[in-house]
Every structure is written in C-alpha cells, then in structure tokens.
Amino acid sequence: MRAGSNRIDVTVTDVVVVNELVKRFHFERTHGGILPTFSGGAHVVVEMRDEGKTRLNPYSLMSSPLDTRDYTISVRRDDAGRGGSLFMHREVKPGQRMVISNPVNLFSLDLRAKKHLMIAGGIGITPFMAQTAQLAGRGGNFELHYACRNDALATYADVLTARYDRRIHLYRDDHGEKLDLEKLLSTQPLGTYLYVCGPAGMIKWVRATAAEAGWPDETVHFEHFAAPQPGKPFDVRLAVSEVDIRVGEHESLLEAIEAAGLNPPYLCRGGVCGQCETNVISYDGKFLHNDHWLSEEDHRSGCKIMPCVSRFEGKSLTLER
Amino acid sequence: MSAASMLSRPVYGTLSPQAGKHHLLVADAEGAAAILDLAKNAPADFFAKAHIIYIPGASGPEYIDALKALNPERFYEGPSFAAALPRLRQTFDAAHMGTRLYIAGSEGLIGQVMQVAAEAGVDHASIQTEQRGSLARRVQCVHCKGITENVTTQPVKCSHCGLLLLVRDHYSRRYAAFQGVCINAEDPTDIPPTEEIFR
C-alpha cells in the first residue's frame, strides 16, 4: 500500500524536540524545488516503512502556507497508540528519505468570514499554526483559544503568543483555567466562523454548545482524525476482486484491503472525507461504525461502511470492492 | 416555478423557527403571511427576541395589525427596500452570532436581503427563505449591467439600454438578479411576442 497516486519523495531535514511529548519534523523535496501549494488546515499522509508493515498516518501541515520550501508536521507521541507516532519519534532521523502524499485540505478556512474564531485542544493546535500564518499574511481577523494540560505541554503557545499577542488565549488545566464557551460564543460578531480541532470530546462539546447558541451548522468547522479503533478480528469477502481477507485486531479494514494488494481511494484515513466509502453487498452480523461521514440513516441501513475506521462483528460480510 | 431548472436558480423553502438568541425577520407584501404561519410553530419566547422589518408594498395595511400582535421586540414598517436598507445594514453590523435570519416575500426582496447578509458574512445556506406573492424578477442586463426591477414579462426591454432581453433562470447571488440576454442580437427587427409569465 502507498500514500496515494500523487506521492512526493522527501528528505527529513530536521527533527526538533518541542517538549516531552511532541517532536517536529521538517521535510524538503529530495530532488530539490518547492513543494506543492497548500492552504491552512491541509494535511499530508506520511508513509512509514515499519519492519515489513506500512503505516499511513495523516498529519496536519503546520508550516506557513506562504513558504513551501519545506513542510513541517508535529507529532505527539502516543505510547498506547497503534505505533505510527512511536515510529516517527524513534525511527525518523535527519537525512532520512520518506514518502508523503500531496496535501489535502478537509479543514480549510472559509474566507467569506468576517472573523475566524479558533478553538484548539492539545496537539489539535497544528492546523491552526498554518491557518494563523495564512490569515496574518493578509491581515485577517482571527482569535485563537487554546486549551492544554500545563505550560510544559502548551505546544507552540510561546510561538503563537510572540507572533499574535492578545489574539491568543491560553487555558491551562493545571491552573484551573477554563474556557467559558457559552460566553465566548454569545459575544461574537455576525459573520464569525468557528473552527475546532482537538480531542473528540472537545469537538462534541463545542459543536453542541454552538448549535444551542444558534450558530448555523455552515459556520462550524471541525477536524478530528479518528485513529482506527482496534477490535475483534473479522473475515470479509471482497466480491469484485474475488478475494477473502481477514482483518486483524490492530488493523483497520482499509489497511487489510490494501494489504491484499488493492488500492481503494482514500484521503483522510480518519472517517471524515468520504473517499473510501464502500457498498455492502450482504452481511450477517453488526457494524461498528466509527466515522463522521455517513448519515445515521446510512449507518442503520447496513448498505455502506467506511473501511478506514469502522469494523464488523458477525458471521459474514461481503463488500463491493 | 419551484423546480430547479438550473443549479443557480434559487430554491425557497418554508420558514421554520431555528435555534437562536435573536431572530431577524424581513418580509415584503404577502411575505407577512409566511411570518404569521411561522408564528404558529414558534416557541413562546420567539418574538420577544425578534425584529421584524416589513415592506407592505402592494398589500397595503392588510397584515400590519397581525404582525404587531405577535409582539416582536422591534417592528419596522417602510415604504421600500431602499428605505429599509440602512436599518438592515445597521442591524447586521450590530448583530452577534446566534442571530438567525428569515426572509419571506418576493424573489427580488429575498435576493437583495441575502446580498446584504452575504456582505455581513452570513452563509446563504443558513438563511430561512420563503417565496410568497409576486413572482416578478429582478433582472440584470448582461450587456449594459443595468438592473430592471419587477420584471413580469418574457422577453423584457432593458430599462437602461433598451435591448430586448430573454430572462434566463441563470441567477446571480452576488447581484441578486436573474441574467437577461439580448434575444434578437442577430436581427433586431425580429421581435418575438411578449408574454406575462412572472406574475
């Protein structure tokens, strides 16, 4: 499996320890030249060759869209995760060659907005690094509210505060600082758009509070890369390819399909973009839907599944793939 | 008229109360009836947080008492869209997120209020609209760019440059107008019959 059809050969030019959990990686084109243009909020999928296993993880670009001599990403180490962040932290060194996808933006700024209100939680700060740089370059009106555990894990809070001063509002858990979201949302001028990136619980809280405060859905943008959840192994029949596969405990259905030699379309690998949507031909069992793409009606119908994040438990499952 | 013959052809719905802290309702003529219908399904405190801007036009005083009886927080009645425009702009300028917008009445009114709302950064898809009353169109001549209001006929003579225009379903949200294209450019003596179709 590979990081999509438009792959870019890059060399790691620098690895910077940002704090005890976060490292920053800089990539330049191996063969020289500038990298493709992107807009704030875009991500790339990084291919990791990890002892015979290929990992494909999406990471938000955090460098300025105004400078594409290099791309930078920041990776938070997740010791209990599936291993991608540990690979980046342990194995990736300056000088190493890697392959990344072209940038894709599923979390772009809506430039019709009069004001951009950003809410970040933890490592969810990364897309806002690029978005604030993009907006600052054109005099855009923005305000960033950033919740983190403590000063030591307030990744880039110092950089942001130095750049944008009072536009940055920091909330540290260990200081008991709390974002008064209802008040914040009720005092925004008409024409404000809301962006939230962080843990799933935070996104849910922000969306629900905004809906209650009368913010139209169109004005609320969110991004959450749901890592595929582990689960019981299950067997799948891929009817078009006439292949039977087994999805392992720590593997996603998409990864198992790719391991069988197929190249289904995908962009986000996190249940939001809709690219890998797959029709179900028949099933006997129950679906464990984990995506943000299909409607509740689709989930109930048993006709569709998002193989990047969703699983299945039961006797048999046949997909149109 | 409701069928989308072209992607840009606006499709209108039925006003319904939305979750919000304030409600701005703008209507002309028979659009008032759409507000009265919405009131039947609205929560008890809806109009206490509502501002109604009403342009009676051809309906005269017919709906005014009924609208006032809804006890909106603010009620404005004006002779024309142009007269209401400064108030509308000022209202948008001072408004906060959580203010929901409802527009009912003629297409010309709906389009022009949406145009001002878009300038204020309001997403057009978040606006509740309902077409009531006249189907007269606001038409932009694609040749001289002049706008002709209240067009009910097909074709129509441009009120600025005098060309005979075919009124298309091609709609511009930016201009809040349908596009009018010269119908007899090759032979100006070929004058098709005029029919009143946008009543």
From TrEMBL, chain A:
CDD domains: fer2, PDR_like. PROSITE patterns: 2FE2S_FER_1 (PS00197), 2FE2S_FER_2 (PS51085), FAD_FR (PS51384). Keywords: 2Fe-2S, Flavoprotein, FMN, Iron, Iron-sulfur, Metal-binding, Oxidoreductase. Residues 5-110 form the FAD-binding FR-type domain. The keyword Flavoprotein applies. One of its GO terms (molecular function) is 2 iron, 2 sulfur cluster binding. Residues 234-321 form the 2Fe-2S ferredoxin-type domain. Its cofactor is FMN. InterPro entries: 2Fe-2S_ferredoxin-like_sf, 2Fe-2S_ferredoxin-type, 2Fe2S_fd_BS, Beta-grasp_dom_sf, DmmA-like_N, FAD-bd_FR_type, FNR_nucleotide-bd, MRET. PANTHER family: CARNITINE MONOOXYGENASE REDUCTASE SUBUNIT, NADH OXIDOREDUCTASE HCR. This is Oxidoreductase. It comes from Borborobacter arsenicus.
Automatic annotation (TrEMBL), chain B:
InterPro entries: DmmA-like_C (IPR048037), DmmA-like_N (IPR054582). This is Oxidoreductase. It holds the Pfam family DmmA-like_C. The keyword Flavoprotein applies. Keywords: 2Fe-2S, Flavoprotein, Iron, Iron-sulfur, Metal-binding, Oxidoreductase. Residues 138-181 form the Dimethylamine monooxygenase subunit DmmA-like C-terminal domain. Signal peptide: none annotated. Residues 5-127 form the Dimethylamine monooxygenase subunit DmmA-like N-terminal domain. It comes from the Bacteria. The keyword Metal-binding applies. GO terms for molecular function: 2 iron, 2 sulfur cluster binding; metal ion binding; oxidoreductase activity.
